[in-house]
Amino acid sequence: MAGHMAGHRAGHRPEREPRRRVTIADVARHAQVSTTAVSKVLRNAYGASPAMRDRVKAAIEELGYRPHAAARAMRGRTFTIGVLIPHVRNPFFADVLDGVGEQLGGSGYQAILVQGGSTDLAAESRAVEALIDRQVDGILMIAPITPKSRLEEVAGEMPLIVLGRHERSSAYDAVFDDDDAGTELVVRHLIELGHRRIGHISQRNAGRGKPVALPHLTRAETYRRVMTEHGLEGEIAIATTSWTEEGGYDGTRELLARSPRPTAIFAGADQAAFGALSALHEAGLSVPGDVSVAGYDNTRLAAMANISLTSVDQDGTLMGRTAARLLLERVEGRTAAMRFSVTPALVPRLSTGPAPGSGAGA
Question: Are residues 169 and 258 in the same domain?
């Protein structure tokens, strides 16, 4: 009898074992796409083509896949937030991240940092999708180039804070600097020092179509406005490169090639101003004796004695702290959109002085 029962159990074991649950990986293999593509289709996310959706949906139906709702419910929060930055070299972003870290300290939340691409919309989109797929509780995007419509789609999936952009949205919170006021401070400062030939280094718009509301547009527009208001529209000179050391270097060489050359350069970011200082040194020109230089961001490097760069302080640490605080509020359930604007201040240092022969500041 015992042997008979043992044989009976052995013979029926395959029927008693529960069927292995179909996973996203199974669906991806069956449809011959990536697991990220399956995730996009399941979330009805941006970036999945109609053909891909059809293949994935067919695989789901054939395999009988069901999203594991119970597992999702048990997961709850991951106590992580995603932070997207354009690139890691800009020291202003480090100030923002310091503020984020200060705000998250003791909260139980950790930040997951991803690099977007600065001018590469596809790279930024992949980075955002990676954060969503890792089920972060919310996302902070620093100066994203993603169109507003897509930002609002992301905000429909999870809490979102956008830092550095000026447009209004009811779907996400915004933290930004009053770039118009900051630019007016620095351009007026140079005009009061007697400068008339003031050049500006801006950066190119990313992608195609209508440019997003990023700071470089406001700073360039305000530079034009203030110059025009002071009767200097004929002296307007903008070098459009990038807000990097290389961009500042190339932009300065472009401005120095003008005749007559500018006596002052307003770089739209400190990082570009550092490149400007390098180009002027290479050209054998003194700062500020021959050419004054001003930046924007008031990064820690700007205050170093051997650099002493005049700059506009937009308090990146405060912006980071505020953005993280607003994001945690969103995670806790706030839905009303908030906007937080930082009031900038000019920090004059040794890189700006009277225009040659003007007698200003004497």
Answer: no
